[in-house]
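Quick one: structure tokens for this chain, please?
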Amino acid sequence: SPGAQIMLEASTESSYVAAVDDPNDDDFIPQPGGSCLACCRRRRVFTERLVYPRVEKGRKAIALEETGVPSRLPAVPNVVKNTRYNLLTFLPLVIYDQFKFFFNFFFLVMALSQAIPILMVGPTFTYVAPLVFVLSCTFVKEASDDIKRWKRDKEANNELFQRITPSGLAQVRAADIEVGDLIQLEGNQRVPADMVFLSSADGTGQTYLRTDQLDGETDWKLRKAVYATQTRYSEATSLCTDKIAIRIEAPKKDIYHFLGRMSFDGRHEREPLSLEQTLWANTVVTNGPVVGMVVYTGIETRAAMNTTQGDTKVGILDLEVNLHSKLCCGVLVLLAGVLIICKGLSGNWSDWYIYFSRYVIMLSYIIPISMRVSLDMAKILYSMTIQADNQIPGTLVRNSTIPEELGRVDYLLSDKTGTLTQNDMIFKKIRVPPGEYTDEQVPLIRSHVRSATEKPEKLWGENLERRTSKRNPDEALGQAMLALATCHNVTPIRDKDGGWDLQAASPDEVALVRTAAQAGLKLWHRDDNSVTLLDLHHVQHRYEILACFPFTSDSKRMGIVVKEESTGQIIFFLKGADSVMMERIAKKGGSWLAEDVENYARAGLRTLVIAMKRLSQAEYEEWDAKYKAASTAIKDRDAKTRKVVELLETRLDLLALTGVEDKLQENVQETLEALRHAGVRVWMLTGDKVETAICIAISTSLKARHQLLFVMEGTEISSSDEAMQKLSEFASGRFQETVLVIDGKVLTMLLQPENIRLFTETAAKAPAVVCCRCSPTQKADIVRAVQQFTGMRTCAIGDGGNDVSMIQAANVGVGIVGKEGKQASLAADFSVLKFSALMRLLLWHGRNSYQRSARLSAFVIHRGLIISIIQVIFSAMFYFVAVPIFQGFLMVGYSTYYTTAPVFALCLDVELPEKTVFFYPELYQSLRKGRLMSIKTFFGWVLLSLYQGSIVMLGSMALFEGKLINIVAITFTSLILAELLNVATQVHTWHPLMVAAEILTVLIYVYSMFILRSYFDVLFVFSYEFVWRVAVIVFLSWAPVHVCKWCRTCLRPPQHRKLLEEDPQEDSALYSHQL
């Protein structure tokens, strides 16, 4: 029976777990629980899981519940899914997104009301057709975008990989990979799921990963295979055994930590697993073949858990237009109420209710649905203009709904590596006791190193005991280059053609080792046991590695103990940040260090202090005994090991100070400077360490010369309370002139729910903020916090897969196509090739897009208000009749072919020339205040509509008292001409298409008079009496308003006018440009 089968499976699983790995072992530290979706569709929480090679098809991994009871782990599909809709959800979701806007919902109600005969006030198509057109355009656009996303997902899911089976290799699609599969990866191949690294074909048990799509850093990360599987299983197929089991923690977001262990032969042998044995999904293996076992798939991978699904973005202008439409609705109800009150409330209540409804429908053009169509067409035009801009080639607009947002940005949140910098390290300077040498003096350095290698005693003889201040250039540079060539984790690569290259986790190390090679000490071989150098005389020097202490974010230094093979000399080299090296260097000989470090940092160089210490054989053996004892300790192993290593780090001889430049992207400094003057605050969110981030902040001018630094590091802060106390110290100081720098550990504390609000509000006051060691999720959390707690608009820019969440969370997401691929570019709203394109996007295109859309929406609302005012006066004068004054084609034509072209032509208007906009970036600050779409501005347009509508209607009645039979032709002609003049007086820079739009509209109107004979008496319209009286009406409705506006401009000129008056050449340039 099914029940008996379930019991049998549970019993079998329990036996297997007990045989391979005991769930109740005390030495395995459980991590915070994760979650999965069980077969019964309920959410289960567990802490650990057991994975074994999937030798048999259908065999599943085992979940270990908190109670210790094992159960079968439900499979998680390893699929990539970025689509927003499916066949069932497409229509409901798109319709919901459209009708949540007041415009569309209002006209849906109006269209449905025309199905009730008593409420019909005109042709039904005048209400239904615009709504259907708007929805049809939206359906086509959303379907097209989602089909493109589906095609990209399909390509990723169908990528083929090699799965190891007992009978050999078999191809498997990425979407079909399951937990427990053994996957063989070739060089430069993407990792399809989270895996544990088991072996490499080259026998070294090592490989490098490119993690740019995960953490944003292009540094190559060293990964080491599990020692037992690398040495014990020579053939890949031999790994297909049930004697191996991997016990791991629950899925979590942390990409920098991993906890697990591998058991062999029924728990008789175990090997701990850490981050070094992992191959995370979406990283790339640089050399292969390598074999890994899949432990997490699909949404449980680190990459997926650090990616958030982007919501549909709505621009602030759309929200403001939506607010204005609600205000228009209020005006509509008010006018309908006034008509009802004036008509009288006597009689049956249903009569005045019907009349009120008819008045509302009749005046519904106050809220014109053409607004959505006009704005959508304008957005498409802006997008085309951006993509056609020759000064920012390669720019693509992937989200055409928010170009106006570029003109309203308050905060820019930027990635560092690949965005602000090229991640291309260049050696610039080295300071040794005898003096300083630059990259232009490499030949001179080379000659000194040649001389030093000719006499090895300069490197290893008695001179080593002399104080550094007495060393000659040969000796000083020789020892400095020797330290650079040996103290590192760089691996040389030589191909069959004699080519030589370097592979490492840190580009800084690559730059320095390459400099040592250029100086005459080339790294020829490097493994865990030795380093071999090749000098200028083609002589190899081999150094045995006795101990190596890798760099960590806590220690901020790296050390190595080497033994020269021929002389037996033992040397301890140490390099690290100046903040930790100062106290470890002998005072004599290092007096110049502090001043030069400050000078290098001020120049934006990444500094590294290098020192050394010679050890006798007896000193080394004594130290080595202590080190071995500490490294095998069960309790507090790391602390004890660190304490022993620090015994070597005393009274070191200072060798050199190096300065490396991280090459910046083109025009980064100019762009950040312009944005600072524009009032945009810049936050740099990076996965790099604090020292590197500070150097880049200085070199990019993110930190101005007069500004201070306030650093919050995890080494000084151990609790959330301490972090908040430190933050309050920042707030109580000169925070407006201080750049705030926060490392990852402290940032985690500050982003806790109880602290995040105060942190965001405080940090938002700083001129710039630098957040280091940020995970992809933290970047997105920071963006959301800035938006939520400051109410400001954000723009996020990045170039890696780790930036996708941040880009999608921001109001405006910009992706750079660069070395890290196109993942950020594809997920962004705007795709650019360079960071410097941001200045033109914001200051020029953002300004124009926002101003044009604001004027366009204001004119469309004005167009609806003025005709509604005319309708109200008409109804009031003719016994409050609920009959439209303009019906049929006149009503449809008024909002389309009679006025659309001139009003839409405002999308070509340019208020100021480019030269002025970029010369005065401060002009951008006025846009961010949103005055063009404020409520005050809205009611200004209401008053203008009230005045002009009253003049047109009352003027027509006064001047054509005996010709009221032609009241439609009189008022409509005056209305059209007044609107054309209104548009003309709003233009700052005339475009040929604007002139054509005005002329074409007049011609269309004149031509329609001959066609629509039921509305126009041609003989009367073309009479002299009609022409001059209409001219008087138009003049009275238009001239006084614009005379008042001109006077106000003279008395209170706008900001840009003040700037132009200070520069007459700019003023004349603007005038000629307008002509």
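The longest helix spans residues 837-877.
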